[in-house]
Amino acid sequence: MLELDVITSAFDKAAFSKQPHIFQLHNRGPRHRQVQICGSFDDWKVRHDMNFDPFTNQWFTTLHVKAGEEFLYKYIVNGDNWVVNDEEAKQKDSAGNVNNVCGTLA
Asked: Which member of 68, 78, 84, 87 lies 3.0 to 4.6 Å from 106 by CB, making a disulfide possible if both were Cys?
């Protein structure tokens, strides 16, 4: 086996271990200026911008997350309001914070 085959296989394995997951937050009331999502899928370090769809009145984004894992996340509205989506499953973390929770298929 060539070294190039090993490197490519390791890269492919990492790339294919993730799957797309769609996140949505309905915009109730006046339209938010900005909505982001942050979660354990990237150690709570990155705020991912979401897009607004005026026809469905929802904010949405698709992130590629590890398959077969459960992760916690929250939505950030207008830069500083961390909220959960009441239409999605919720769970408390070890510090007692309520977050949305989701798992992906392996």
From this structure: 68
Q: Which residues pair with 92 in a beta bridge?
A: 98
* Domains identified in the chain and CATH numbers: 19-103 (2.60.40.10)
Taking residues 9-18, report their average pLDDT: 66
Residue 42: strand, helix, or coil: helix
Answer whether 47's CB lies under 8 Å from 36's CB: yes
Q: Which of 26, 64, 12, 58 is nearest to 42 (CA)?
A: 64
Beta strand 58-66 with 70-77 is: unpaired
5-14: b (≥16 Cβ within 10 Å) or e: eeeeeeeeee
Task: Quote the CA–CA distance of 95 and 23 in Å, as a whole number.
Answer: 24
